[in-house]
Amino acid sequence: VKHREGLIVGSACEAGELYQALVRSAPEEEIARLVNFYDYLEIQPLGNNEFMLRDEKSTVKSLEDLKELNRRIIRMGDALGKPVCATCDVHFLNPEDEVYRRILMAGQNFSDADRQAPLYLRTTEEMLKEFEYLGPDKAEEVVITNTRRIADMCDRIAPVRPDKCPPVIADSDETLRKICYDRAYEMYGENLPEVVVERLERELNSIISNGFAVMYIIAQKLVWKSVEDGYLVGSRGSVGSSFVAFLAGITEVNSLSPHYRCPHCFYYDFDSEGRYMDDLKIWHNDPQVAFPFLDRAFKGCHELLRLGEYKSARTILDKICRLGFQVAEAEDTEDFVDDSPYTIADAEAEQKLSMGKREIGYDWLQALLMERGDAVEMGFAREFLAILQSKLCQELNLSDFGGLISASLLDCMEGILQAEIVEIDASLAEFSSETQYWQERHLLEGKRARDRHLLLDIHKKCKKQEKEAPHPTPDSLLDASWKEIRELLRTLSYERFIDDQLEIDEVWEICQDLIRRGRFEEEDWRIRKKILREMVSHSYYHDYGCYDPVKELADKLYITDAETLEFAELLDECGSYPREAADLYRQYGRRDKYVQYLEMHLERSSREYVELIQCYCEDGMEDEARKVAEQGLKQCGDDLTELFIFLLKDAKACKEKERYQKIYASATRRKKVDIAKVNQAVTDP
Question: pTM of the full predicted structure?
Answer without folding.
Answer: 0.34
